[in-house]
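re the bet — no i am not wrong, look at it urself. input seq straight from the record:
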Amino acid sequence: MQQLLFLVVLSIALPTDDPKLVRVKVSDQISVMLPEDFVPMGDLDFQERYPSVRKPIGAYTNPDHEIDFSVNISATSWPDGNLDMAQKFFKAGVMNMFDRVEFISEGVHEVNGKKLIYLEFESRVKGDRSSLGNQDAVVKYSYLQYWVESSRTVVFSFNCPVRLKSEWKDTASKIMKSIKLK
């Protein structure tokens, strides 16, 4: 019994490896708490890793370029504000982008007074055995949030390799819950 009590006290007393978060102003309307060592991602870096026709509002990465957070505008808008329908649409879109998707959690929740759709999942894209450099499957942990307005949808995306999920899952949640929108 004393050993168990000692382990509990020790686990509380030891410092955590959670990164220190600092407030980052992404735009005039958006700010978020990100790890202090995150840096803005260059345009070329973003285009290589996240091909998109739209330049992100903001994209940030850790020093190893393995953990990413970005904010972008979706091509889809929902003038009627039907969040349940929008959630189903975005979930179907995620399922079509990957070979395999395992959802961890999903729904609509409130973040600092705004209702956001969220999708948390692990995804897998098969590698191409006939192509050099793309032989292994890419497996990622992702946490997405969507802020649906009548004229636009803002997408918040956190991504990391699934092997780092246990280290970053709690931090990803803190980042997503720290988003402030005007």
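see?? The CA atoms of residues 37 and 62 lie 6 Å apart. told u. also Confidence is low (pLDDT under 50) at residues 1-16. so pay up
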